[in-house]
């Protein structure tokens, strides 16, 4: 398999965690989204939505991190990241969706670019935007963990899709210097995950295209 | 079951389609997000992410439309909206994610409100924002359908999660008077779906809280 990834993309980071947890060897192909390499014709031929990551498995090119992780869970089910228990699975998908649908999409690079280049917001307005959606989203995450979570991972003793989503999102919040003091449960999960070798291997700083 | 829904919410609309396709009776509980009823304490107790829809099944309250539809597919598998075939399932989730993660989150009510109230963009800037993300996202959808789709639904003769996501998104685009001439495949799927009684029952205008 090949993973088209950008070190600092949190959707790529999610899939890197899943690959590492499953111990799946793959070739890492860097796509520099800061240089618009994800909009190049040959990349769009692989992934019409023009985002990272893309997973290549044989002659299949698959985009969208949640679709990729679901695919990996079907083709390489150990360890399962989407539980088979109906209620647990629902909780995992609910929390993952808060991150993947409510938080990340409004704070990613293309949105911040539009705010700056088209709407010409100030750096302070951009940062306030970022922190607003982080605060709203992580408050929801914290409340869901308080209600349904039981550590050390989001939902028990084994990592799931929820952890694959949470860790990159918290890493982004820290990088953007958001106040994370109101999310002790999420931060405890983050700390636990980052003590595990698979999560460490997936970190941006460990990728071949990393730049400080 | 109970569905907490707003007639004009496209995430609620997705779940209404799924419920209708599966023929599942439920009580419809309106939540007027224009009046911030989704931020009321009693609603947040049901759904800490403070969005619509919420599905209540027995003593379970579940938020997030994709998690809800996956749950319904587990508990009421006929007809299946998430195919069991690995590759088809991947394509369904990929296209659904383009809509649920790339298009809808940046154009929903809370974002448009922030643009207007906090960033004080003009009505023209707000409309341009909306149409920009619709155009970018539906171009991806159209290209994915061209590559992997085969009608009359997004992926063949049976509706899937992809159709549950596509129809409300196209309805939004039409409501916002976006140019949809570049998406004939998506529009053909939309027309086919809207000729089916289950999709018709889920339409905003057919909900008890509908207002023109």
UniProtKB/TrEMBL annotation, chains A, B:
One annotated GO molecular function: maleylacetoacetate isomerase activity
Any single GO BP term: glutathione metabolic process
GO cellular component, one term: cytoplasm
Gene3D superfamilies: 1.20.1050.10, Glutaredoxin
Record-linked CDD domains: GST_C_Zeta, GST_N_Zeta
NCBIfam families associated with the record: maiA (TIGR01262)
Family the UniProt entry places it in: Belongs to the GST superfamily. Zeta family.
Protein name from the UniProt record: Maleylacetoacetate isomerase
Species of provenance: Achromobacter aloeverae
Protein encoded by which gene: maiA
């Amino acid at each position: 398999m090949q993973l088209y990834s950008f070190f600092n993309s949190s959707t790529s980071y999610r899939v890197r965690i899943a690959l590492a947890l499953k111990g799946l060897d793959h070739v890492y192909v860097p796509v520099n989204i800061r240089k618009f390499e994800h909009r190049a014709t040959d990349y769009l031929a692989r992934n019409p939505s023009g985002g990272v990551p893309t997973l290549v498995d044989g002659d299949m090119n698959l985009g969208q991190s949640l679709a990729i992780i679901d695919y990996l869970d079907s083709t390489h089910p150990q360890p399962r990241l989407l539980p088979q228990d109906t209620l647990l699975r629902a909780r995992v998908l609910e929390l993952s969706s808060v991150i993947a649908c409510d938080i990340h999409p409004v704070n990613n690079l293309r949105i911040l670019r539009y705010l700056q280049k088209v709407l010409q917001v100030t750096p302070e307005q951009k940062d306030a935007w970022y922190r607003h959606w982080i605060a709203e989203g992580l408050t929801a995450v914290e409340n869901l963990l308080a209600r349904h979570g039981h550590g050390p991972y989001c939902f028990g003793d084994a990592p799931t899709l929820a952890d694959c989503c949470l860790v990159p999102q918290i890493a982004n919040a820290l990088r953007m210097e958001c106040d994370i003091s109101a999310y002790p449960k999420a931060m405890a999960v983050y700390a636990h995950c980052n003590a595990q070798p698979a999560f460490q291997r997936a970190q941006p700083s460990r990728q071949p295209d990393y730049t400080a």
